[in-house]
Amino acid sequence: MVAADGELVGTGGIVGSDDRPVLGYAVLAAIPTDPALRSYDVVAGRLPDRPGEVVLDAPTATREGFDLGTPVRIGGSTGAARPYTLVGTVDVARTTRDVGGPFIGMVGPDALAVTGMEGYARIMVAARPGTDETALTDRLAAAAGPGATVKTRQQILDDAVADAVRDARQFTMALLTFAAVAVVVAGFVIANTFTIVLAQRTRQTALLRVVGATRRQVFLAAVLESAVVGLVASLLGVLLGAGLAAGLAALLSRTTAPIGAGITLAPATVLVSMLLGVLLTVGASLLPAWHGTRVAPVAALTDAAVQSTRRAGRFRLLAGALVLIAGIAALVGAADAGQVPLVAVGGVFAFFGIVLFGPVLVPAIARVVGWPLRRMIGATAGLAVANAVRNPRRIAATSNALVIGIGLVSAFVVGAHSTKDGIERSVDAQVGVDYVVTGVGSDLPAGLAAALAARPELGLVHEQRAAVTGGIEVRAAHPALVGRTLTATAGDLSRFGPGTVLVHRELAAARGWAVGDPVTVKGRTFRVAAVVEDGSRPAPGGGASAGHLVDMTDADFTAVFPAERGYLAEIDPADGVDAGRARAAVESVLAGYPTVNLMDQAAYKRMLTGTVDMALALVTALLGLAVVIALVGVANTLSLSVLERTRENAVLRAVGLTRGRMRVMLAVEAMLMAMVGALLGLGLGTGVSAAAMALLNRLGGEFHVKLPAGQLVLILGVAVLAALLASVLPARRALARPVVEALADL
């Protein structure tokens, strides 16, 4: 063995040249002092060799104007920042040490002192060339003692690769979930398109039957056609996907994200994508192809422009009604049953109920939605409504594709806004002060609360701390704040002070404690000042144990749990001190603590809800693809309907329908299909989110349905606008042929 040294990675903070904390999540790492264990790319200077020295990543040092040999103040969870001599800069870009923020490197003792960690995460060992690896591993395992794990370099690399693969697989599974939604929507669109196309070929199919083609041959021809279409479309999809991936990689290569600019298009990916596309297209065409074989040869003598519409079977409608009712019942009863899976089951059942019962439900909604349009536009809108509901199965199939995409989007939108509202309610109920100070990646530094409390401009400073002992959660509380978040059910909150505790109602009932009774916490005895109730706190684990809490004053908590640190400090200005002076006082103290943030209540809420907003934006963008596919289905349906009604539209033009009115009629028809699908999707998504919020509220917490009316209306408006745009090409085709030629079409 040549050398051994400890390794750790934690968080720290840098005080910038302007005496303000350097923004960004900073990684602080222990750098070995032995050259055999060092693996850093030094840009300037050298790596630290002794305590009191530090290296930074080169971009941070350049941006802050730090020169080699000058002091840089570094701080962490153990206290205020102190100066360290900058001896070098390093390049950590595109490595595991690069998380988008500053990098701080120190020798082991300094890293332990700043982060407050009790020991190293692991010990690195360098062996002499030719050392027997197995023998050294056994010796190290014996020296480390039981419970320790010794890994070779190759095992460490293998574990890192396995972790990266696992993370990549999880990310891939998340993307595949959204891709699956798009595939399902595409299946609806393909099936509906083949249904209409084969219906248009009724006379051609009948002629084939007349000249001797069998039903089997007609069926196989349709299936073969779908396979060719699927193969070509899948190939184009793979090429488009590869192009988008290359563009995204090129874009990311221009940022600081640790990702390469190249892409890998594996043969297995191409094969699976092509196979999935072909199977999806063929599978979606099987039922329409089977129906197409049922054309009798006598149909060759009929007018191909007149298409019969098949009504949905009674069994399908009955099954759809029952499934829809079962889905709605599951969503309504999920909260009372307290079962999370019931929400998902209810949503799935409700969707399939809409699909099965759609031939009755969708035309009915279309007529209701079309009524005001008929009143505003007149006979043209009436014709559009009649055309839209002429084939109930067709409009239902077209709308169902939109129900999936918009239903999922609206579910996430309503759920996200409801969650944000619940978080904001919780903050309002639990944080009743003007300012809060939070730790960045760690607890608040030791001594920060005392430093803030020493400022005369600040009247109230309370560090939120909690600990669990004997199965009871004990919290630090401030006498001036308990009245803002707690309600006394027995006793008086004004009696709360040193030597007393507040016991939550459920714990008092479980232990038989009453006001004035002694309570022992870790060998110290306190008196119950009041029995309280806190309806704003969610139950840990979703159970009823939220009341199993004891609150004691800050001083008593420090005496009982001296090493416990908090994650948040609440601050109020002193009487007569305006907000500006109070904030300046807080900022002057925080200048020496670079691992904390100062926020008012609004900023604190934005910080807590920021992740929800990011997730919502990502989900909406991914699900937007499904909505686009569904709207392509609207354009498809309208185009084929225009072809079907060639002579009918020519007759309307011959009797006086203007070109503008024809465009309006087709636009209204497209808008009806989109509006019905969007309304059903909004209803389904809102229902699922409402059930989920009701369940969460019952399990514990302040969760209620929050309907973002503006965004829901925007979703509906975007769907309608896209449908109007989708009607442009079909309208152009409908008006392209002269009236006389269209009337002569057979």
* Mean pLDDT across all amino acids: 81
SS field, number of helical segments:
22
Question: What proportion strand?
Answer: 15-25%
Helix fraction by DSSP (H/I, runs of at least 4) = 55-70%
User: What's the total count of β strands?
Assistant: 20
Measured distance between first and last alpha carbons: 92 Å
Low-confidence segments, given as residue ranges, are: 304-308, 535-547
Largest sheet: number of strands, sense, barrel closure: 7 strands, mixed
Short characterization:
This protein is of the alpha+beta class.
List the topology elements.
Blueprint: E1 3-7, E2 9-15, E3 26-30, E4 41-45, E5 53-57, H1 58-64, E6 71-76, E7 79-91, E8 103-106, H2 108-115, E9 122-126, H3 133-144, H4 153-200, H5 202-210, H6 215-253, H7 267-292, H8 314-337, H9 340-377, H10 379-388, H11 392-430, E10 435-439, H12 448-453, E11 458-464, E12 466-469, E13 472-477, H13 482-485, E14 487-491, E15 500-504, H14 505-511, E16 518-521, E17 524-533, E18 549-553, H15 554-560, E19 568-573, H16 579-590, E20 596-600, H17 601-644, H18 646-654, H19 659-699, H20 709-726, H21 728-736, H22 739-743
Parallel strand pairs: 3-8, 5-7, 13-18, 15-17
Antiparallel strand pairs: 1-9, 2-3, 2-6, 4-7, 5-8, 6-7, 10-19, 10-20, 11-19, 12-13, 14-17, 15-18, 16-17
Q: Can you walk me through this structure?
A:
- It is built from 22 helices and 20 strands.
- By secondary structure, it is of the alpha+beta class.
- It has four domains: 3-150, no CATH class; 167-304, no CATH class; 312-434 and 600-746, no CATH class; 435-599, no CATH class.
- Strands 12, 13, 14, 15, 16, 17 and 18 form a seven-stranded mixed β-sheet that branches. A six-stranded mixed beta barrel has the order 2-3-8-5-7-6. Strands 11-19-10-20 form a four-stranded antiparallel β-sheet.
- A hairpin with a 2-residue loop joins β16 (518-521) and β17.
- α9 (340-377) runs antiparallel to α10, α9 (340-377) runs antiparallel to α19 and α17 (601-644) crosses α19 (659-699).
- It is globular, with a radius of gyration of 34 Å.
